Amino acid sequence: MLFTWGALIQALLMLLVKASQRSFRDVSNCELNQKQQSDLNSFLWTIKRDPPSYFFGTIHVPYTRVWDFIPDNSKKAFQESSIVYFELDLTDPYTISALTSCQLLPQGENLQDVLPRDIYRRLKRHLDYVKLMMPSWMTPDQRGKGLYADYLFNAIAGNWERKRPVWVMLMVNSLTEADIKTRGVPVLDLYLAQEAERMRKRTGAVEKVEEQCHPLNGLNFSQVIFALNQTLLQQESLREGSVQVPYTTEDLIKHYNCGDLNSIIFNHETSQVPNFNNITLPPNEQITAQEIDSYFRQELIYKRNERMGKRVKALLEENPDKTFFFAFGAGHFLGNNTVIDVLRSQGYEVEHTPAGQPVSSGRSPKSPTIPLHAPYSTGQELEPSPPPGALPP
Ligand SMILES: *[C@@H]1O[C@H](CO)[C@@H](O)[C@H](O)[C@H]1NC(C)=O
Ligand SMILES: *[C@@H]1O[C@H](CO)[C@@H](O)[C@H](O)[C@H]1NC(C)=O
Ligand SMILES: *[C@@H]1O[C@H](CO)[C@@H](O)[C@H](O)[C@H]1NC(C)=O
Ligand SMILES: *[C@@H]1O[C@H](CO)[C@@H](O)[C@H](O)[C@H]1NC(C)=O
């Protein structure tokens, strides 16, 4: 139940999308039973070489909600790849604990000391409300799995007074009824990581926890307070029933399943931070919103795409005879300055691979597999390896 980078980017993107005037809500329903394999979405790209490697765009929602919409060729590419790389190694307890501690305020500081009094009070009131409502938000299915409201609340929000404001803001965004209902099933990226382990594939990560955490902590104080204030204003309106949920995980799932590569939230051009209540922001707040947006694009998308692309290239060069499956958040493959663009600029041919198009089964192995070099990954830095049964909830 901890925040991972994928969740974070997704939450931020949702914040940005909320501000958009685009019609994200009128996505036509993608009924699976009316679909042929060839009609399905595809978040698969092939890196042309012999054997090929793959990029796959994941999403941070329960895998059961999207799995049936993922084309067979994407699944085959995953199965046939001997090495699977993620943004971060989510199955490594070190990753999780490093992410957790990165979210904390410096030793001895407390949110109450840091936040404007009004914001702190509203935050506390809102979290009290969430705690009260949580039992009624949970589904019978979740209860059947032994998930308890108190446990869930504590897992997500337990230590909130010690978190940095930006993480509290993201936490508040994920504490909605709709999001709570999705808890308890592994999200797609985590599921793939678990499957890769189960299938004894070599796994690794292209980023270090620190590389992910620092940019977010780099949003300055007034920007964070602005975003937290807007988030609280939105939640308060929801509580009063004066606005509808403006954007939910459900919409995101629909977009992913409908596979609208152009309109998907990850590739949003006119983004501006939240105009949550659909009230025009005063000019100075609009500027703050735009500054957050451009900071976000630059630091959390473009710079990371550049770094991820370079590491992908290094991995491919170190292992010319291996088939890689790089499973990163879909947002890294859509829009400007994507990871794909980085690879192309390095001379690689990368093609979108629609559903129904056969994926090459790769070169047949010439010789028995020889042990590989140490992976270019955070694997080393992230020692020790997980004790059995230590997977995050
Ligand atoms: C935060 O950043 C913005 C834009 O760079 C700047 O205008 C503002 O003064 C900064 N605020 C603080 C508290 O540093
Ligand atoms: C929160 O936002 C509202 C509306 O934009 C504004 O009037 C208020 O001053 C803000 N509060 C803080 C503490 O920034
Ligand atoms: C992508 O780049 C084009 C051209 O520079 C620009 O007009 C557009 O706004 C950019 N899109 C995003 C999502 O930044
Ligand atoms: C937001 O405002 C615009 C115009 O001001 C309106 O067309 C739109 O329907 C509003 N959206 C919501 C969700 O209320």
TrEMBL record:
<keyword id="KW-0482">Metalloprotease</keyword>
<keyword id="KW-0472">Membrane</keyword>
<keyword id="KW-0479">Metal-binding</keyword>
<keyword id="KW-1003">Cell membrane</keyword>
<dbReference type="GO" id="GO:0005886">
    <property type="term" value="C:plasma membrane"/>
</dbReference>
<dbReference type="GO" id="GO:0016055">
    <property type="term" value="P:Wnt signaling pathway"/>
</dbReference>
<dbReference type="InterPro" id="IPR002816">
    <property type="entry name" value="TraB/PrgY/GumN_fam"/>
</dbReference>
<keyword id="KW-0732">Signal</keyword>
<keyword id="KW-0879">Wnt signaling pathway</keyword>
<dbReference type="GO" id="GO:0006508">
    <property type="term" value="P:proteolysis"/>
</dbReference>
<dbReference type="GO" id="GO:0004222">
    <property type="term" value="F:metalloendopeptidase activity"/>
</dbReference>
<keyword id="KW-0645">Protease</keyword>
<feature type="compositionally biased region" description="Polar residues">
    <location>
        <begin position="358"/>
        <end position="367"/>
    </location>
</feature>
<dbReference type="InterPro" id="IPR040230">
    <property type="entry name" value="TIKI1/2-like"/>
</dbReference>
<feature type="signal peptide">
    <location>
        <begin position="1"/>
        <end position="19"/>
    </location>
</feature>
<keyword id="KW-1133">Transmembrane helix</keyword>
<dbReference type="GO" id="GO:0046872">
    <property type="term" value="F:metal ion binding"/>
</dbReference>
<dbReference type="GO" id="GO:0030178">
    <property type="term" value="P:negative regulation of Wnt signaling pathway"/>
</dbReference>
<feature type="region of interest" description="Disordered">
    <location>
        <begin position="352"/>
        <end position="393"/>
    </location>
</feature>
<keyword id="KW-0378">Hydrolase</keyword>
<comment type="similarity">
    <text>Belongs to the TIKI family.</text>
</comment>
<comment type="function">
    <text>Metalloprotease that acts as a negative regulator of the Wnt signaling pathway by mediating the cleavage of the N-terminal residues of a subset of Wnt proteins. Following cleavage, Wnt proteins become oxidized and form large disulfide-bond oligomers, leading to their inactivation.</text>
</comment>
<protein>
    <recommendedName>
        <fullName>Metalloprotease TIKI</fullName>
        <ecNumber>3.4.-.-</ecNumber>
    </recommendedName>
</protein>
<keyword id="KW-0812">Transmembrane</keyword>
<keyword id="KW-0325">Glycoprotein</keyword>
<feature type="compositionally biased region" description="Pro residues">
    <location>
        <begin position="384"/>
        <end position="393"/>
    </location>
</feature>
<dbReference type="Pfam" id="PF01963">
    <property type="entry name" value="TraB_PrgY_gumN"/>
</dbReference>
